[in-house]
Amino acid sequence: MTKIIGLTGGIGSGKTMVAQYIQSQGIPVYIADEEAKKVMNTPEVIAAVVKTFGNDVIDNGSVNRQKLAQLVFNSPEKLKQLNEIIHPRVKQDFDNWVEKHHNFPFVVKEAAILFESGSYQFCDKIITVTAPLPVRLQRVMERDSVTRDQVLARMQNQWDDEKKVALSDFVIQNICIEDTKSQVDNILKTLRKNQY
Fold this sequence. Notes:
Elements: E1 3-9, H1 15-24, E2 29-31, H2 32-40, H3 43-53, E3 58-59, E4 62-63, H4 65-73, H5 76-100, E5 106-110, E6 125-130, H6 133-144, H7 148-155, H8 161-166, E7 170-173, H9 177-194
Parallel strand pairs: 1-5, 1-6, 2-5, 6-7
Antiparallel strand pairs: 3-4
């Protein structure tokens, strides 16, 4: 049976780079955020979003993710409502994806909110990518052209590293790319050897 390895990390930790490197090693990686974007624009989800949040978040028949994000980011209640629409459908999409890759000993599910959404419970092992806070802030400010305060506000919606690390099987400290790749190689070696 194909094992599911969860891959997560806070904003700016570099988990996307780690996911791409794992993919380059021939291991299927499901990028939850990208798949959620596709799920977001299915007719069923658009109807549910309109019913819950109104027509203001729809542009040209698609969900305007920026408008929706502005609406839910400062409201835990609205964020919860959105997650209740999206998460079950993304889970179904992921289950279908795993079925397509059943001939691999393990696959990786990359998700920013693996812990926050509760989907970590369906993983056999978990890898968390971390980096020092100043490094993470700098990366996101440069990548998204946002202020330090805006990055810190986004971080408020995610668990802190200590909490994630406590529930993880492997932790990658991502500061230098070459060192990070070497840490990933060691983890993949362990996963292949033990065939979790």
